[in-house]
Design goal:
It is built from four helices and five strands; from the N terminus they run αβαββαββα. It is an alpha+beta fold. Strands 2-3-1-5-4 form a five-stranded antiparallel β-sheet.
């Protein structure tokens, strides 16, 4: 059963029963997943190309580069300078990525004991930091030249923080009680 089918068949009825909602349209859903990585310190063009290649493999979509909005002298950045890459996933690619994140990548992460509830914002959106990109199954053994971290944000349309936490818990995210 795919994650999308699980949402429709299991999560929606359970959420309606738990929160006492009459209409299934009231149940929050995952809108998008945003994957970011910063490249501020990297100056080598080959390493930047390698990051783009790895992010494309991991997400199935080419990342967009993000320019600096402000010039900050202590960080040695100028307006318009490349500071990171981002990928926004929606639809089938989003559900496929979430499935790989929950079932393969997070358990492979070093010293992983579950996601802390402090990782949720006031609307119930989850932000996870992945220290090494090699936890994803698309990265094969000796295929990488260096390690980089990335940030994954799962955005939903929950009204309250508790609704967002419960939605992701029912979807299969390993959230600490």
């Amino acid at each position: 059963m795919t994650l999308q089918e699980k949402y429709k068949k299991e999560v929606v009825p359970k959420m309606m029963a738990k929160f006492g909602w009459k209409n299934s349209m009231r149940v929050p859903k995952i809108l998008k997943v945003v994957v970011n990585t910063g490249v501020g310190k990297i100056k080598d063009e080959k390493q930047l190309q390698e990051i783009v290649k790895m992010l494309t493999l991991i997400t199935g979509q080419k990342p967009a580069w993000r320019p600096a909005k402000k010039a900050i002298s202590s960080f040695k950045t100028r307006i318009g300078q490349l500071v990171g890459y981002t990928v926004t996933l929606r639809g089938k690619r989003m559900y496929d990525f979430i499935g790989r994140l929950i079932n393969i990548a997070l358990p492979r992460e070093r010293d992983f004991r579950g996601l802390d509830s402090k990782s949720f914002d006031r609307n119930g959106n989850l932000t996870i930091g992945v220290k090494e990109h090699i936890v994803f199954p698309e990265i094969i053994g000796e295929d990488y030249k260096f390690l980089f971290g990335l940030e994954v944000t799962v955005v939903n349309n929950a009204q309250k923080r508790e609704e967002g936490i419960e939605l992701l818990r029912m979807m299969g995210f390993p959230i600490k009680p």
